[in-house]
Description:
Blueprint: H1 7-20, H2 23-29, H3 31-34, E1 57-63, E2 68-75, E3 79-87, H4 93-97, E4 105-109, E5 145-147, H5 153-156, H6 167-173, E6 177-180, H7 184-194, E7 197-202, H8 209-218, E8 236-238, E9 257-263, H9 268-276, E10 279-285, H10 290-295, E11 300-303, H11 314-323, E12 329-332, H12 334-342, E13 346-363, E14 369-381, E15 390-395, E16 401-406, E17 411-414, H13 436-450
Parallel strand pairs: 3-4, 4-5, 5-6, 9-10, 9-11, 11-12, 12-17
Antiparallel strand pairs: 1-2, 1-7, 2-6, 3-7, 8-10, 13-14, 13-15, 15-16, 16-17
Helix pairs in contact: 1-2, 11-12
The structure holds glutamine.
Amino acid sequence: xMAATSMDCSIGSQLFTTxxxxxxxxxxxxxxxxxxxxxxxxxAAAVGLVERPWxxxxxxxxxxxxxxxxxxxxxxxxxxxxxxxxNTSLTGYQEILTDPSYAGQFVLMTNPHxxxxxVNFAPSDLMLPLVDVAPRTYDISFLICFVCRLSTMIFAxxxxxxxxxxxxxxxxxxxxMGIYDVDTRAITRRLRQDGSxxxxxxxxxxxxxxxxxxxxxxxxxxxxxxxxxxSCKVPYVWVDKTESEWEFNAKGRGEAFHVxxxxxxxxxxILRRLASYGCKITVVPSTWPASEIxxxxxxxxxxxxxxxxxxxxxxxxxxxxxxxxxxxxxGICMGHQxxxxxxxxxxxxxxxxxxGGNHPVRNLRSGRVEISAQNHNYAVDPASLPKGVQVxxxxxxxxxxxxxxxxxxxxxxLQYHPEASPxxxxxxxxxxxxxxxxxFVQLMIQEKEKA
Length: 451
Ligand SMILES: NC(=O)CC[C@H](N)C(=O)O
């Protein structure tokens, strides 16, 4: 047992004592972090002094521009290809990992400390609860990869009483590759300069750099239907609400509306927020026919977030076209892009997209700025939209379209995530203005009053 002498240890001990009240367990649990055994620059323990408590393997990330980044691997091993995008969120790596909109992508976290709080299995913290109400099967394209800079804590020690598993174990069990000890700042600069790049990540020494480069140059994410790999296969009813700490907005609740949610890779907090606003929800697969939906006479329809290129799913655009104008609809992220296309507009691929927890968005109707959570690579071109469609929100970083409304056709949409909680809840708290879910409920109230 190591002596707990450093400042780090004493802070750790206090936290640990609060939870377990045992001095001996606090010392044991922190023995790895408190070790005074010297570590060399690459994180390897000095020979002969201590046995490394985790295993690492060398990995290579080969980008389509020909650059090769050497790193250490954690999580799963093997070879994967995907689009590399950077995410600037400081917190929420677990939510990011379980967001189906990242299918086909490698997420590079710009925050160097990832894994500190481990992974927690409380279903309320996951976008996708582990025990789902309906079976979801993900195909290979859901296997994203995690790229981070300093992740020593992912292996041995985490600081969170809710932690049930380390990030490394979590990834390994789900066959998700992760790498660390790589200059994420340099890769991010490259992506900012050149735009998102396809990358191949490999722990297989038998594969040559040339082979990996060839793989990255022959694979593409544009034009690929990634939704069919993450959508549910059968309809199901959703009842769970968000927990009490979310109930900060009393507006728009009280009446039960039946909402049908198209699952293009839906994040469960969208469903929870809707349930908290008093909606009864039926979730349907992405290919569910619009005619069946209209027969069910819902009060409203949600088109969810989802991975990939909106132009690769013309069947979804057709479905949206058949539904709009008939019932109130709300599109979120991919749903917003599909609505844009269904109205006759076009979408385009952005240079490196928006992936983070602090994107400022101006609500043009109220003038209010929201700090929002975002995750998208595509955007609607507002100039391509027909007359009558209003751009309601603008991303203040680059002026791109962040929200639409077309009152005549009972339609609203947001390019970002009002259901997310990266810290601020700006997109869901309205004060005097009805926002997001409350606005959608208001659309359904107006429609009911007309009938
Ligand atoms: N979060 C989402 O729905 C992502 C939308 C779309 N796949 C994009 O990357 O733009």
